[in-house]
């Protein structure tokens, strides 16, 4: 399924409501994909390996969460794969093949990623999902490196980005083909209807889940295999995972956005990125300013076109 005019069809909305996810083919065109990938190549080339960075793991999230992780909410920060280093603490391979992800403010701090994140088709698609005042709250470039790309365990996005009422939606853009071999997403269709299972909290003791993880039957998961350029829309309560390490020789690059609504919704102060609370209104105003400026430019272009046709 694709998308026309930036709006979802009634059939697409019905599928999303029933299953908790939606696959939108060719959401990004080849030029957009190339632009995002080339920009990340530049950021990686400029990244100093000796500078501050940390390992990212969903298996040992409490142990690997540190100040670098907390501060990344407002920055472009780099995170290593768990298996990137040998016993002596040296990288086993070039840094370009050792990074797990880059986050969590690419959509704010980098003009190339900002352009896609705030594009008309993204905002239009969010409006058709019912968002009144959508704000991108975090962004990540995920590599799923060949041979060492780590597993992402079953989770719900609302656990980490909680609002009252819950409003988080994940947007997962495939920058390469994502298959069962190189580590595509997997989801339990309809699991969002059971509501939020647990929350990931930040307090004076650091970060922790308020409840243990349930045990899931892997037979309930279905693979979400997609071509490069496809967008996977993920309900905030959907149980999903990237269930296997990438043991293939191919990477699986993706650009991920998480969006919350700011209309009648309260951002939880005990979210891991609690500092974002003071930035939400500013982020929305910034988005509205870009939309207004774009509308002015578009209107002027139409006026010029009409004058030429006279």
Provide structural commentary.
- By secondary structure, this protein is α+β, with helices and mostly antiparallel strands.
- The chain is built from eight helices and 16 strands.
- The strands form four sheets. The chain has an eight-stranded mixed β-sheet.
- Strand 10 and strand 11 (206-209) form a beta hairpin.
- The longest helix is centred in the last third of the chain and has 30 residues, at 280-309.
Features of the shown structure:
4-stranded antiparallel beta sheet; 8 helices; about 25% strand; alpha+beta; about 300 residues
Layout: helices, strands, pairs:
Elements lengths: L9 H10 L1 E4 L5 H17 L7 E2 L5 H4 L2 H5 L4 E5 L18 E6 L1 H4 L1 H7 L2 H9 L5 E9 L9 E4 L7 E2 L4 E6 L10 E3 L12 E4 L2 E4 L12 E3 L6 E5 L4 E3 L11 E8 L4 E2 L12 H30 L1
Parallel strand pairs: 2-3
Antiparallel strand pairs: 1-13, 3-4, 4-5, 5-15, 6-14, 7-16, 8-13, 8-15, 9-12, 9-14, 10-11
